[in-house]
Amino acid sequence: MTTLTSTTDTVTRDALAVLQPGFTGTTAPDWLLRRVGEGLSSVGLFGRNIESPEQLAALTAQLRAERDDVLVAIDEEGGDVTRLEVRHGSSFPGNLALGSVDDVALTRAVAKELGRRLADCGVNLNWAPSADVNSNPGNPVIGVRSFGADPHLVARHTAAYVEGLQAAGVAACTKHFPGHGDTAVDSHHALPRIDVDLETLHARELVPFRAAIAAGSKSVMSAHILLPALDPHRPATLSPQILTGLLREELGYDGLIVTDAVEMQAIASTYGIERGSVLAIAAGADALCVGGGLDDDSTVLRLRDALVAAVRAGELPEERLADAAARVRALASWTRRARGAVSEPGAAVQEGTAPGTGHSTGIGSDVGLIAARRAVKVTGTGEPLSGPAYVAAFTPVANIAVGDETPWGVAAELTRLLPGTETGTYSGETEAPGAGALRAAGERRIVAVVRDAHRHPWMTEALDVVLAARPDTIVVEMGVPQAGPRGALHIATHGAARVCGLAAAEAITQSSPSGA
């Protein structure tokens, strides 16, 4: 009886160990601290949990008071996807901007400085970088989160990013295996399908993941996508052929395999989160990301109990669950050692303050702004702005990964540089957005700001109307510049981070970069 109880306790602790739940609030709730004390080894943070670096450091200290080696994970890609600076926009450009510059030393330096800031706040696992090759320009969820469309460019920058991040003592999580770049569906809403043959998969999607593995990526995140060439029945997250056969055995990866969020509809609407979680661990995953939308104790208990029941029923081998939990604990041990090993604070930073925010502008030796400036591409012969303008922001619906709470655009920076500048926001639901922008602008010169114009016909039509009436309009593309340059001046920023907006405003006004 004692042995049975001991075994049951071990299975229960292992089931808790493989979960990476989120929660609401800016302090750890009692239920979360209790589960950490019972064996929960990881916690996931989102924008809702963060108010400031000081508050975040206090939160992670609160968690570590319960367990010193707890993994504190975050989805901090920089660029469009930021949790650390969700209220003001990122101090770092995203992957597409870095890929467009194509300087691996710069990418490594950006990742190291981002990692330093995370480590200073007590975060030790970053669900980044995205190693997806953005081969489908219409992809609704990857886009600027990818380094680009060339597999080898993506590979060298993925490796550099992994090296930089982990040099700061923060574990990288390369995603979304085996590659989410050729999808036309967002897996937050449905199950994407990629119909490519094995030769294409190896020549394109897998190239960056091989580079990440060679660079020592401590974890890899699976994608909720169906690849019939590998497994015609189950998405990658639930596929033994993909997670164990391809990633573990063929590619030789021995680190932690983390799932993308199990509550995403690609899994939840087809399998349910409990069944999906059991199948994922059985397939070879080691940790279950959950909590972007499910963030309470009942969810943790449901998933814990589902895993324990599957072991008892013989559906999930106890050895597989134990192996998964051991990999989680091994990564936790690495991060604890890495914290002590990192003696240098990272790249030296001399920062100014963004007006009204109290946050770094990046001006000075900030590698993030330096990278954003280098990523800006200016096309055309039109005159730069010399006086107040009207900024027409043509705004698409943000995908869930990016979120709609993070500000973007150039209006704030242009208003600072050119007082009197005004702005208006237009969406696909706005009646005649182009005509509306013209009326609101009056005699002022128009700066039309778009994001992935090639994916939004209404946006292209609005630009047509504005440019026909006002050919001196400046167009700023803050997404993938697939549609080509338009306007008297065309500014491609390769991302919508705050520093990208600042770099664009400098280019539009031809102002001298402060401290550069």
Share of residues in helices: 40-55%
Shape: globular
Report the strand count.
14
The protein's oligomeric status is: single chain
Helix/sheet category: alpha/beta
Number of helices: 17
The average pLDDT is 90
Model description:
It contains 17 helices and 14 strands. The strands form 3 sheets. Strands 2-3-4-5-6-7 form a 6-stranded parallel sheet. The chain has helices at 2-17, 30-38, 53-66, 95-101, 104-120, 151-167, 198-214, 240-250, 265-268, 273-283, 297-312, 318-341, 367-375, 411-417, 433-441, 457-469, 498-509; strands spanning 19-21, 42-45, 71-74, 125-126, 171-177, 219-222, 256-259, 288-290, 377-379, 389-394, 422-426, 445-450, 474-477, 489-492. Helix 1 (2-17) crosses helix 11, helix 1 (2-17) packs across helix 12 (318-341) and helix 10 (273-283) packs across helix 11. The protein is of the alpha/beta class. It starts with a helix and ends in a 7-residue tail after the last helix. The protein is 41% helix and 11% strand.
